[in-house]
Amino acid sequence: MILRKPYALLIKNFKKIHLVLCILMAYLAYESGNILTFFNEYISSGTFTRTSFSLSSTYINIYMFAVTVLVAAIALVIYILMRQKKKPKLLYFITIGFYLGLVIFFFQIYNTLGVLEVSTISPRSLRIIRDVTSVICYAQYGLILLMAIRAVGFNIKKFNFGEDLEELEIDVSDNEEFELTVGIDSNEIGRRLRRGRRELKYFIVENFFVLSLIFLIVATSVGIIIFLNKEVYNKIYAQSESFKAGYFVNTINNCYYTHVNQLLQYG
């Protein structure tokens, strides 16, 4: 199979790639701004307005996670390009780390909003969450500004990425073809599989204690996670069974099923 190195294509579309990055990052900044607005209003008024069945899904959705990972992936590609061309790459390294951390932040906010639906959070904790969200929002604005500078080409001479392709330092190796061998040798594969089985067997025998300990730790961790998910965080209670929500003990004495969204019907 004949493939072609992508460096020349990336350099030629350098500004367009950064424009796409700006759009994706602006979307995440907008959604993060909505989260910050929610916490500001909740701290000032002490209440919140429910606009859908789930408060968590109102401010956190799957698209935010997908776009965040996509931004980190694009930044990683540009980082590899900059390292290959020996150009400044700190901005892209920071972007990768920041947006991977943003995934964790969104998970935490999702869980926090889920807690607010059934319980209360101390004012001090709410202000900490609000302050962290503010820092994350402002950091996103700064990264968007820097990416916009790359997109419009301002101060681009510092990075030697001008509109003239010669300044991009595209050489033959950036666009050359290379051969990827995909031919299958059944005898060679068979020998490697047999050798791999022998080495795996020797490895397991020699490191049986360590592997057993690792397996025990992993199995215990998975068991604890499953238990917490089923019995603590997402426990399902039966009718007439008491459960604690914050400082209150509740019992559902009667219930009924409905397919009607009462919030949409009367909101």
Describe the model.
This protein is mainly alpha-helical. It folds into two domains: 2-175; 187-266, no CATH class. The protein is built from ten helices and four strands. The longest helix has 32 residues, at 14-45. The termini are far apart. Residues 160-168, 170-174 and 262-267 have low confidence and may be disordered.
What descriptors fit this protein?
267 residues, mainly alpha, two-stranded antiparallel ribbon, disordered C terminus
- Main sheet strand line-up: 1-2
Strand percentage lies at: 5-15%
Report mean pLDDT, rounded to a whole number: 76
Number of individual domains: 2
What's the assembly state of these chains? single chain
How do the helices and strands follow one another from N- to C-terminus?
EHHHHHHHEHHEEH
- Could you give a short account of the major beta sheet? 2 strands, antiparallel
Rg, Å, rounded: 26 Å
The coarse overall form would be flat
- As residue ranges, the low-confidence spans are 160-168, 170-174, 262-267
Strand segment count: 4
Task: Estimate percent helicity.
Answer: 55-70%
Work out the helix count.
Answer: 10
